[in-house]
Amino acid sequence: MDVELRQLRCLVAIVDEGTFTDAAIALGVSQAAVSRTLAALERALGTRLLRRTSREVTPTGTGLRVVAHARRVLAEVDGLIREAVSGHAHLRIGYAWSALGRHTPAFQRRWAQAYPETELHLVRVNSATAGLTEGVCDLAVVRRPLDERRFDSAIVGLERRLCAVAADDPLARRRSVRLADLSGRTLLVDRRTGTTTAELWPPDSRPATEETHDVDDWLTVITAGRCVGMTAESTANQYPRPGIAYRPVRDAEPIAVRLAWWRDDPHPATQTAVELLTTLYRNG
């Protein structure tokens, strides 16, 4: 069964214009071409799509359903074409949990002021590549290295590691904590995108772990006091919650914030984004 886009466009034009003659004018073809194209579509689908009388053309029941699908298909194709032709007019930056923390608003504002011709979109995708592999972004903010065979990346800044505990937890009364303070607790981690693993602790004092795959679930469980978390500083800026206290882990290594992109298909604005983010992180 071969259905062509021109056949779908012809069907929609007939329904929208109301007659074969008007559809032909809208499509810029002859009326005979419209009739042949519709007939080919009906043969391919094996069903009648339109009722034709001397006065009007109306869809059959099947025709109504096919027209609805055809509109969606054509809209998707038109969007695909716009993306391919003018995709560089947009810059989509994916992130898994916390974007750029306190730098997020400044980055958005400065970008809009300096590069109004390239519209910026931040997209949250909770995957290991923050949307790169899924094709939903051009660049991704990640906090752990990606596969160097497929992706390039640049470190744009460093963030402190913070412990997240329930607001009534004894650790919440401290100004900072140490890794050893967490070794007897249950740590809630996201193995796909997170930066925290039990390997941060010595083998004989590693905390128990439970797994989550969503920041909202992570926050909810920690608020209840069942687990504690450790995360990048940006999470505290992005997700302040009355029931959670964030405290610096003073003996934990900082987290490198990377901007990543496909090695063989970098967006033209990649270097510009790297430079702006590096400046923001450098200036605090």
Automatic annotation (TrEMBL):
Q: By its UniProt entry, which CDD domains does this protein fall under?
A: PBP2_LTTR_aromatics_like
HTH lysR-type domain segment(s): 3-60
Q: Specify one Pfam family.
A: LysR_substrate
Asked whether the UniProt record includes Ribosomal protein among its keywords, one would answer: no
What keywords appear on the UniProt entry? DNA-binding, Transcription, Transcription regulation
**InterPro entries cross-referenced by the UniProt entry:** LysR_HTH_N, LysR_subst-bd, WH-like_DNA-bd_sf, WH_DNA-bd_sf
Q: Record keywords: Metal-binding included?
A: no
Enumerate the SUPFAM superfamilies for this protein: Periplasmic binding protein-like II (SSF53850), Winged helix' DNA-binding domain (SSF46785)
The family line of this record is:
Belongs to the LysR transcriptional regulatory family.
Q: What is this protein called?
A: LysR family transcriptional regulator
Q: Which organism is it from?
A: Streptomyces javensis
